[in-house]
Write a sequence for this structure.
């Protein structure tokens, strides 16, 4: 099973990936970790603005190399989850090199996501609600296929997980997602 995650800020993408790793033995490859490493290497603060800026710079310079690195890291593993796809070209590349991959979108109401992001207390999430809304607006759409476009990614997801309740509810929704993915994978193999 090959799952690629996308989703809105603070929606629970990390939580979904962690659950898949801990409860189903998935291997996880994260583009966010690679970007954070580059931000640290440059001596920059790990703010959302710096992460977005460095990610966009890397994509402009290297195209889908970051995604290819995640896919290569996962190569040969039985069950894989990669995260987090945020651009039009990343979705196109995923469909090109891993046509059987399932793109799973994770979402939640904005007030819930803001509270979750604030509770993480990570440098990139230290912002007011107005700043959070503005940051999301910057990442939601773009004419540039190598710049964050979460709206595009979510509209091309094979499945959406709405993380709008308890952690137990999310875990149940992940289990339901896995059943749907298994069915979809079996149907694709029969085609």
């Amino acid at each position: 099973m090959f799952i690629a995650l996308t989703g809105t800020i603070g929606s629970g993408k990390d939580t979904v990936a962690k659950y898949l790793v801990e409860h189903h033995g998935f291997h996880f490859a994260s583009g966010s970790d690679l970007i954070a490493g580059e931000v640290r290497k440059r001596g920059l603060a790990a703010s959302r603005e710096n992460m977005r800026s460095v990610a966009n710079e890397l994509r402009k310079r290297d195209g889908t190399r970051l995604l290819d690195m995640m896919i290569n890291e996962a190569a040969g593993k039985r069950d894989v989850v990669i995260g987090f796809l945020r651009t039009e070209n990343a979705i196109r590349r995923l469909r090109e090199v891993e046509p059987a991959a399932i793109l799973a979108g994770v979402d939640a109401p904005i007030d819930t996501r803001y509270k979750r992001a604030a509770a993480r207390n990570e440098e990139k999430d230290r912002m007011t609600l107005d700043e959070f809304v503005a940051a999301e607006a910057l990442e939601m759409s773009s004419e540039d296929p190598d710049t964050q476009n979460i709206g595009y990614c979510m509209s091309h997801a094979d499945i959406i997980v709405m993380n709008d309740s308890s952690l137990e509810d999310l875990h149940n929704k992940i289990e339901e997602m896995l059943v749907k993915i298994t069915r979809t994978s079996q149907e694709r193999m029969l085609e």
In short: The CA atoms of residues 120 and 142 lie 27 Å apart. The two ends are 17 Å apart (CA to CA). The beta strands are 2-7, 27-30, 80-83, 102-107, 159-162.
